Give the backbone structure.
Amino acid sequence: MKMKANIVRCAVLLFIAYSAPLVVADPAAHLRNDGKSYYVAVKADPALWDGKDGKGARVVSPYDLTKQIVASVFQKGRQVANVVELADSYGSDFILRLPDSALADGVSALTVAVQSYPVGEGRMSGFTSSVSNEVSATVELKGRAACPAGFPLLVQFSDADVMTPYGLQRIKDLRDYMEKTRPAVQVESNTGKEAKPRDVKTQTKFFTDPDKDSGGRFFQCLELTDEPPSGTFDIEFKYPETAPIELRRPFLSKDVANAAHTLAPFTVDESQVGKRKLEQNLDASFQFGSSVEDKKEKNAAGVEEPVRKRNSKGTLDLRLAPFLNVLSLPDPGEKTFKFYTPLLIDARISTGKINEDTLALNRIILGSEYEIRRFTNPSTYPSYQRYIFSFRNASDRDFKQAEWKGGFEFQPVISALNRPLRFRRKSVNPILDKDPERAPRDVPTTIGFGGQVLPLIGVEAGKTWRNKHTFAAIEKTTFVRRFYFGGTINLDLTAYVKVSVKDVLYVRGEAQDDDPLHNYFKGTIEVPFPAITRRSASSAFFSFERGGEPPFATPDVNAVKIGYRVQWDGWFGQRR
């Protein structure tokens, strides 16, 4: 019997669907709520008979008129209501009240089939119509001008040309509800494996007032207590299941773009001031170092003799480039990139007095840099060459010693040796977006092994033009000329632990008869932290270094350092 009833209902629906266009212009069915329950308010077209004869005398009462109406509400082909009641006070012709279970799949799953209703005395008609809401709610990112730090949830009429009295009242009711209730939030980064919860601020902002705005619309600025992730992400706002039907579905915005910032670079570059990589607008680190150095102390006989003593210092490392690159990027498909940084500051400043033991740790460099980067293999693991030209003026912290230098450095990056873990991807299906047509996301691998081998070769030449120190000068002579080569090996043990080994050999033209070859070794273990803001990142590091670097004014070091590094590209979001 149940199967037979379903067959009959489907046949009725098909019959009405094919026949209705012949007799129907534009009927409407809206989902409404009277405070007790939800119902479907139907406005017929052709119009429902008013129950009066040609002379204007009533011949059928409104109550008896509803008995002549045969109508049902179907939810995905299943009948959920068929009792016709008198019209509501908002201009409908009749209503069909719904059970709560009928809204499980949302309003889009509902259809009204009016098999017959009177359009005049002795004349009947019928139609079908989908059920809709007079008021809609959407996350409208185009309206973020007034909501730059949040996400605007817009509530308005579904059809701006038809503003019903019920819709105006409904918009006011929704605003009252949204003032008291916050939605749950889930954020799914395009580089993450799972969706993560966020909280909405308690004090939410509303723009436009439906009581005063004749447009009958408003939007709420939903600001998160924690910033959304950097890069591209999906975000979902979901009100409780008991919320008004217009707010009951999840509000999903896909592929929202946010200012992106990677984790801190692969290694902490603590090379000589003036030779460290400049990759972002701001790169600062605070570190504590402990090293063993030669000190001269008088013995019991009053004779000075060298003594190895441990020395601990705090140091600020700063690299700053307000205009990291003033050149425009090439057109898509080009393989040559050019970067010009007109002004950069590279400084390392330590605690304590400046003396011949700390001079190398108190350097301030002002200069400019020009780089040509040529890609020969722009694949997942690219090959490219970096040609870096620089001109810089260096001084100590107190500006008592100064020198200028010009330099050139060549850094080839070879595809076979350039396979860091961060380049590896794996396919992950979206979590928040249930659309089966949505393509899987490529997520960086966090567990595994990767690495890089980065050779370098360079030359530099310059002159010391001021020296007012009473102790040994930074350079042995006023004319400086050097050739150096070496490289760095970076290893990803996981995405959370990185190891770097660097070794460089210097050939010193200014010291042919005194220590012409000088070697420098440095090993670093780094633990990157997640981005602390949209445009910044940080990491902790532990390093061991041995040997000497330019300007070779101090004895070779044998030092252990621990520190914390912060990066920020907040001016123009530029990186090289």
User: Anything to note?
Assistant: The chain has three helices and 31 strands.
